[in-house]
Amino acid sequence: MRNGKLTALFFSFLFLLILLVGIKLDWWNPTIQLIQKQFGIAQNSKSSSQKNSTLELNLFRLFEQFDVSAETINTNTFLEDKQREISAPIPQGLPDELVINAFSRIVKGTPNTVYDSYYNAKKDIFVITYVSKSKKDKRLVLILSRAKRFLAGSTKIAVLIEDFEFQANQTTVDFLSFPEPLTISLKPFAQKSAWTAKAAQEYNKEVCIQLPFEPRKRIKKSTSPIIMIHYKEKEIAKIITETIKSIPNFKGFGNLYSSVAVEDSRVMGIVLGEIKKHQGYFVNTHTGRTSVVPKTAKKIKVPYSEITAMIKEEKDLFHIENQLKHYTAIARKRGNIIIATRANKSIITVLKKVRPYMKQYGISFVPVSALVQ
């Protein structure tokens, strides 16, 4: 047992040592800049205002960037030790190296330097000590702990509502008035699709057109022309053009059926080429092992993604809630996910209920267009 604790302490010390050496030698710069860009955290600049700023001013600016609420920051001054102590809980969801790097760099433009920095594994806190070149200034000790809450927007989830159809009922109103971004997919040429697209725009909901590809199994009836794999380029382009005319204000496209077309490089090359002309994205809602879409989209440079998770249509609210919480945990590990589901009363009821829970864990609802690459 004791050997296990010593091993854990050794590796904690080794990690911190590598981290601090990396900060000193700027090893982490490329990684830190990418992470800062992802989380929307401003990078240090060498403006004249920063050059004349004080250490504490820089510190509180950084607290604001990291969404640290003012009431959680504690300050103490110890006159006998000529020391000032500031402690604050940092919201979870940020990599430790980003946090330590950021608080180590705030000395730029000030007469201060980082005197000491270490991690207390028992208390799970980081302690950074700053000293000034001026003997009149007090030593500043910064104690960073982990907050219970997560950084807002550190994880993104897009919810795609498939086969959305406007109905004159409360469920439709609840989906459109849901106070977070949702993406609704519409079938082209359906009776109410154009009207629904206009209503979605008024409620700031994103529209995705479901392109009807040749399915694996024969369907009895289709409301729109189907893109068959034997069609020539002009026929495929014509169907896509007519589809776009039927649904205004769209952002992207998906595939309506589990189709053989996504496995045909010629057809998908034509389809994705037409999508690029209209500055849209493609989300593969029915994919397979032999899908050529990822490779073709990358080659043509069309924003593309696949569905990460599905919530099946059912009435069991408890089961749907557990699925959403499970996907929240997955999103926190992966960073971003796209969830596909159907429009029904059970789904929107649970979304409204679980929304505060998801926000507490740093989940930010975004449209599908924000997650395609």
Question: What's the topology here?
Answer:
Blueprint: H1 2-24, H2 29-39, H3 48-51, H4 55-65, E1 74-78, E2 83-92, H5 96-105, E3 112-120, E4 125-132, E5 139-150, E6 155-162, H6 170-176, E7 183-186, H7 193-202, E8 206-211, H8 233-246, E9 252-255, H9 265-277, E10 281-284, H10 293-300, E11 304-306, E12 309-311, H11 317-334, E13 336-342, H12 345-360, E14 363-365
Parallel strand pairs: 2-5, 6-7, 6-13, 6-14, 7-8, 8-9, 9-10, 10-11, 12-13
Antiparallel strand pairs: 1-2, 3-4, 4-5
Helix pairs in contact: 8-9, 9-10, 11-12
Task: Explain what this protein looks like in three dimensions.
It contains twelve helices and 14 strands. Strands 6, 7, 8, 9, 10, 11, 12, 13 and 14 form a nine-stranded parallel sheet that branches. It has a five-stranded mixed sheet with strand order 1-2-5-4-3. The protein has two domains: 2-148, no CATH class; 155-370, TIM Barrel (Alpha-Beta Barrel). Strand 3 and strand 4 form a beta hairpin. It has 373 residues and is an alpha/beta fold.
The helix count comes to 12
The portion of residues forming beta strands comes to 15-25%
CATH topology-level fold name of the largest domain? TIM Barrel
Average pLDDT value?
82
First and last CA, distance: 47 Å
- N-to-C series of helices and strands: HHHHEEHEEEEHEHEHEHEHEEHEHE
**CATH superfamily membership of the largest domain:** Glycoside hydrolase/deacetylase
Radius of gyration: 26 Å
Helix content: 25-40%
Low-confidence stretches: 44-52
Provide the descriptors you would attach to this structure in a database record.
alpha/beta, 2 domains, 39% helix, 12 helices, 373 residues, elongated, nine-stranded parallel beta sheet, TIM Barrel, single chain, five-stranded mixed beta sheet, 14 strands
